[in-house]
Each structure stands twice: as C-alpha cells, then as structure tokens.
Amino acid sequence: MIEMEDQTNDLSEARIPFLDYKTYTDRVFFLPSKDGDNDVMITGKLDIPEGRKVIVAQALNQFSNLLNSKTFLINFIKTLEGRPDFNARSRVYFASLLTVALHGKLEYYTDIMRSLLLELMEEYVHSKNPKLMLRRSETVVERMLCNWMSICLYQFLRDSAGEPLYKLFKAIKHQVEKGPVDAKMKKAKYTLNDTGLLGDDVEYCVLTLQVLVHGEGPDVTPVKVLNCDTISQVKEKIIEQVYRNLPYSQRPKVDSVALEWRPGSTGQILSDMDLTSQKEGRWKRLNTLAHYNVRDNATLVLSRVLHTHRQIHQNQDSHEESEYDFIICSVCYP
C-alpha cells in the first residue's frame, strides 16, 4: 500500500492516458491495420476522378437514404450474412462501418440492433444452445451490440471507471516488476497467471540507479531496478520513471536511447548484446546489470541516438557490433 501511494500520489487526471473519442472508437471498431490511417472507409477521403465526383456523391446520398429505411437495412444485413464469402472478419468490419454511418442517429441504430437481437434470440432458443449466444461475434448484430456498448461506456470510463482501472494496471505492473521477468518469454516470478509463472529460481537484488538525462540539465532521477534486469528492461524502467509526466506515445522508445555507465572518469555503454556477451554453444546470454557488475547508487546517463540505414541490412552478429560502435559515437559526439 505504501509503495502504491508513491506511485499514485501525483497521479492527476491529466496524467491518465485517456484517448480522445475518435481514437477510442477507431481502436474499438476496427482491427489494427498497417493501412488504417489511409483506409478510405475510415478516413472518408475518396480518391475520385473529377468527372465522376457528382455521380458518386449522388449515389452515396441515395445509399444513405436507403440505410435510413429499417426494412431495407435489416434485409440488407440478412442478405450479406447469407453469402458464403461473408466471413467473420467481414462481419466485424461491416458492423463497424454501419456504426460509424449511423453514429449520429443512435436511437435508430438501437432500434435496428434491438430488432436483430430479438430475431437472434428466437433463433438460438429454437435451434441452438441459448447459453452460447453472444459468446463470439458470429453475426453482424453481435458486433453492433459490442460497438453500441463501447459508445455508451466512453463517458463513464472518463468520469468514473478510468482512474481506478488505470491505478489497478499500475499496481499489477509494479508488483510484477518487483521480481525477475524473462526478457524473451515474459514469464515472471510475481504474476496473476500461473501459465506465465517463472519456473527458475533466480537470485536477484534491488538496485537504485541515479540517472542523468543527456542534454536535459543536471537533475538526477533515482530509479529502482533489479540486478538481473537486461539492459532493455532497465531502459524501459528508466524511461517510465524519467518521462512519467508524458503520454506513452510521446516518450522515447527503448531502441532510440543509449545507456552509459560511469563508474569513474570513463564511461561504458551498456547494451543487451556486445563483445562481452557470454556464449553458451551457439547461444548468447543477454547482458544484465549483474553482467556489467553495476552497483547500487551507480550513475547512468540516458542519451538519445539515431539509427543508420546500414544497420538494418546487416546480419545479426555484425548488426550487434556496428550498433554498439555507433551508439558509442553518438554518446561521445551527440
């Protein structure tokens, strides 16, 4: 409880990462896609030849009028669901597009959804097991219901439920990170999921690092880590502590920063893989703070680095060495 008070005392509404309504609905309605930002159905920006714009605009207006007809819309949905090529992904996509199209007329949308739900309930009662209803989004109306609930919940999440849910997330994350976490498999000593339990008994101790951010003044930020943490895990914890007042999207990424340890007058770059990495056959161990013999209250410097294009096209071994050399240059000559 005392540790969590330290985590949440300065937590204000401005620091809780609430999404704006449009981003929230986009993420709920549509599956992640590389071309999501350019999806015509989402952006509404149609690339239409100048000579066809008038005809297309008329056709869209006529289709919009048809969607406002309850009889047409219900039959339209049933016709699509009757097609063998109208798979589950297509149903989710169609339901989300329909939600966006009728977003300004939620009463009408609710009426359509209610009518389709009543028919679905009747179908399950007579021909299927009623207990299985709504377990999977197998129909358009099930996805419509999910979207409708997401719309209705948004303001409640912002006003009431968002803050305690975020604090719960922070508490679980804090508890998990108090013990060792496998950098690759993500299994942890402290976990809520027994399938993700770390089986190995790893010896570890807690270290407090004094972190300086290169180019951001002389202020030192104390950061608690474990000596068994890999360098990437240490970077993650440092970034979370140093940039805790910034939204996650505005924080630097782990691969865009370098970590330098200054045990004396000279500095040493810390990285997951370098020339000092221990080899076991054809495998290499990821470097940890214990590997570098970093002690409690050690001073580390966090620096921004830029990646060169040539790094991307090299094989793994040469990639590791060139990245190591490049980071050294970036830190020494920012």
TrEMBL record:
Superkingdom as given in the UniProt entry: Eukaryota
GO cellular component: plasma membrane; semaphorin receptor complex
Chain ranges of the Plexin cytoplasmic RasGAP domain: 16-283
GO BP terms in the entry: negative regulation of cell adhesion; positive regulation of axonogenesis; regulation of cell migration; regulation of cell shape
Transmembrane segments: none
Example of a GO MF term: semaphorin receptor activity
Protein name per UniProt: Plexin cytoplasmic RasGAP domain-containing protein
Source organism of this protein record: Hucho hucho
Phylogenetic classification of the source organism: Eukaryota, Metazoa, Chordata, Craniata, Vertebrata
